[in-house]
Write a structure and sequence with these properties.
The complex is a heterodimer.
Chain A: E1 2-6, E2 9-11, E3 17-19, E4 24-26, E5 32-34, H1 36-52, E6 55-61, H2 67-76, E7 80-84, H3 94-106, E8 114-118, H4 129-137, E9 141-151, E10 154-161, E11 164-171, E12 174-178, H5 192-199, E13 202-205, E14 225-230, E15 239-242, H6 245-258, H7 264-267
Parallel strand pairs in A: 1-6, 1-8, 6-7, 7-13, 8-12, 9-12
Antiparallel strand pairs in A: 2-5, 3-4, 9-10, 10-11
Helix pairs in contact in A: 2-5, 3-4
Chain B: H1 3-7, E1 10-13, H2 19-38, E2 43-49, H3 53-61, E3 66-71, H4 80-94, E4 98-102, H5 105-117, E5 122-126, E6 128-131, E7 138-144, E8 149-154, E9 161-165, E10 182-184, E11 196-203, H6 208-213, E12 216-220, H7 227-239, E13 243-246, H8 248-252, E14 273-277, H9 283-286, E15 294-299, H10 306-309, E16 312-315, H11 318-332
Classes of the chains: A alpha/beta, B alpha/beta.
The structure holds flavin-adenine dinucleotide and adenosine monophosphate (AMP).
Chain lengths: 269, 333
């Protein structure tokens, strides 16, 4: 089984702080990690390789420092890593990002049987990339998968979708986005990271290597523009009441009455 | 009504599968109508299935000027690839300016694929939509970093301007059985081969569906102190015809299931009324509740940050206030 896992380096959410005056993200002291669900995808890929053989390749589009994420993937056992990096790729929305990723995957030899993505990232949280890669590559897609079985040339997968537990059969090649519960994430074996830095190579592809034009990637190739960033503002101060428990309950009841919460049924004509 | 104005205005994907999805559709019809008015256009709902006439009628009664419907046995099952093929074809023919779907599981896997085929932009899980009165562009407000930050996104040069929208953000219009609208059935065209076979599908009813749609939410935090006290919230919720939510410490303590978690890593709710009991008001929690129309907080610490957010704050001990409140309510309801 030839598997490609798309991983993204994201800021570690607990270390992200907002500057409420300037309405920006404070970059200092923010650590980068592999998007948690991409970790799950990687583990799933390695588990499948163990069962049915084949190769696990990881791929990311990002700034040069994303190489660290790929090195970590190599350390946990990925066979090959490809970094798609070019100044022209910067500022991409999901349309442009998925285009670069799809183009790169298309050029892989052999073409994968399975492409895995996380269902969502913790920073942009769109979940668009998986379906959009599938569309560009003409692959079927199943989103939010939490169980994968290989049955001959098919996959049987499970996923929870809008309150229904689906069991789905899909032929290879296919694209899946994965979610929590698919498999436990192991800790990195000691020393593996150093080994990955010294022994394995990370392939680098630029805009020219992928035969892409500037106007189809990055900011230029994006359909959306961020007009403004805002921090959700707190609401205005309300009334704060102190007093005996009875007083408090009376205040509450009066408010419920004012909101017609208590008489919803009688209230209707 | 000028019909031609309606066809290229604001389109809403009509998801009728279940009560919850249908509600989201109705909410979007109401909001889409508002947006369409600002653009001097109409509101169109597009609905696919094997028999959709009664849904089409319902959408008209809830405000749709036009319903674009497709009936075919091959459309009965919600399939991303089939729906992408049909909708892409119709969008290219009718050229709407705006296309919206609820951010349901299906919406969130269908719309990215459709946006890609149409080569246009898409924003995810929006919590606000507005028309910029200078440019006429749709301003799509979408959360990032789990709601810590809101981004206002526009799609200047690509059409349609697409967004999935968080359920419960907008309010549906009342049913008006006298409303008039037009239902059209454009040619569907060839359907792609179905590559994804559902072997089995069974309902996995989680509370979240009800929780996110509940008009009243009663949320409890660490301050409730015990599983017993937290358990009283179910009765309070039942008396107020609402549902129960929880902060992370309450979930961690095992007082509530994970799917009741509110906030950045849990659910966003926008009920008419939210009562928050024994919660400090940490930002990661309040992002999930600040869409509530009214917030009432009970906390024994007068300086708790939750009081800054609350419309009514009660400084008191939950262990005494809660049983007393229940007693009073039982007498009334
Ligand atoms: C990355 C990240 C993501 C997170 N995501 C979430 C999330 O999605 N949802 C979430 O809820 N949290 C989340 N948290 C945790 C969040 O920061 C807070 O720790 C949490 O919301 C606090 O919950 P609490 O208000 O129940 O508890 P506390 O902060 O401990 O507050 C308890 C409150 O109860 C009051 N109290 C105590 N006893 C009584 C009494 N007898 N009667 C009345 N009041 C009493 C106290 O005065 C206090 O204000 C996240 C944290 C991080 C770092
Ligand atoms: N820049 C990227 N490089 C590689 N994979 C990505 C990138 N961005 C997103 N992905 C993949 O797409 C998934 C969903 O991301 P998103 O659509 O941004 O929420 C992630 O979990 C990754 O698997």
């Amino acid at each position: 089984m030839e598997i490609v896992v798309c991983i993204k380096q994201v800021p570690d959410v607990p270390t992200v702080r907002m500057d409420r005056e300037r309405m920006t993200i404070i970059r200092e002291g923010v650590e980068s990690v592999i998007n948690p669900l991409d970790y799950v995808a990687m583990e799933a890929a390695l588990e499948l390789r163990q069962k049915v053989g084949g190769q696990v390749r990881v791929i990311t589009m990002g700034p040069p420092q994303s190489e660290v994420a790929l090195r970590e993937a190599l350390a946990v056992g990925a066979d090959r890593a490809i970094l798609l990096t070019d100044p022209a790729f910067a500022g991409a929305d999901t349309l442009a990002t998925s285009h670069v990723l799809a183009r790169a995957i298309e050029r892989l030899d052999p073409f994968p049987d399975m492409v895995l993505c996380g269902m969502q990232t913790t920073d942009s949280d769109t979940g668009h990339i998986g379906p959009q890669i599938a569309e560009e590559l003409g692959l079927p897609q199943v989103c939010g998968v939490n169980e994968i079985h290989v049955e001959g040339k098919d996959l049987v997968v499970k996923r929870l979708s809008d309150g229904f537990l689906d069991t789905i059969r899909v032929a290879l090649p296919t694209l899946l986005t994965v979610t929590k519960g698919l498999c436990p994430v192991r800790d990195l074996p000691l020393g593996a990271l150093e080994a990955a830095f010294s022994t394995k190579d990370v392939l680098r592809w630029s805009i020219d290597d992928l035969d892409l034009r500037k106007d189809e990637v990055g900011f230029e190739g994006s359909a959306t523009r961020v007009r403004r960033l805002r921090i959700p503002l707190p609401r205005g101060n309300g009334e704060v009441v102190e007093g005996s428990p009875e007083t408090l309950v009376n205040h509450l009841l009066r408010r419920l009455e004012a909101l017609s919460i208590l008489d919803e049924e009688d209230g209707k004509e | 009504m000028e019909k031609n104005k309606a066809f290229d205005g604001v389109w809403v994907f009509g998801d009728y599968r279940d009560y919850f999805q249908n509600r989201v559709t109705l909410q979007l019809i109401a909001k889409g109508k508002e947006l369409a008015k600002e653009l001097d256009k109409g509101l169109t709902t597009v609905v696919l299935g094997d028999q959709v006439y009664h849904y089409a009628m319902e959408y008209v009664a809830h405000g749709a000027d036009v319903v674009v419907a497709g009936e075919d046995p091959g459309l009965k099952e919600y399939q991303v690839e089939t729906y992408t093929a049909v909708l892409a074809r119709w969008i290219q023919a009718f050229q709407p300016q705006v296309l919206l779907s609820g951010a349901t599981s299906f919406g969130r896997e269908f719309f990215p694929r459709l946006a890609k085929r149409l080569h246009t932009g898409l924003s995810a899980d929006c919590v606000a939509l507005d028309v910029d009165n200078k440019t006429g562009l749709l301003v799509q407000t979408t959360p990032s970093f789990g709601g810590e930050l809101l981004a206002e996104v526009v799609t200047p040069n690509h059409r349609p301007q697409m967004a999935t929208v968080h359920p419960g953000v907008f309010r549906e219009l009342p049913h008006d059985s006298r409303a008039l609208g037009c239902i059209i059935y454009p040619e569907i065209g060839p359907l792609p081969e179905i590559r994804l076979k559902r072997i089995r599908t069974r309902p996995q009813l989680t509370h979240d569906i009800r929780l996110e749609d509940a008009p009243v939410v009663v949320a409890g935090g660490r301050g409730l102190g015990s599983k017993e006290l937290f358990g009283l919230l179910s009765e309070l919720a039942a008396l107020l015809r609402g549902d129960v939510g929880a902060t992370r410490p309450a979930v961690r303590a095992g007082w509530a299931e994970e799917d009741r978690l509110l906030g950045q890593t849990g659910k966003n709710v926008r009920p008419k009324l939210l009562i928050s009991i024994g919660t400090s008001g940490a930002l990661q929690y309040t992002t999930g509740i600040q869409g509530a129309e009214t917030i009432i907080a009970i906390n024994r610490d007068p300086n708790a940050p939750i009081f800054k957010l609350a419309d009514l704050g009660l400084v008191g001990d939950a262990a005494t206030v809660l049983p007393l409140l229940l007693e009073a309510l039982r007498k009334r309801v």
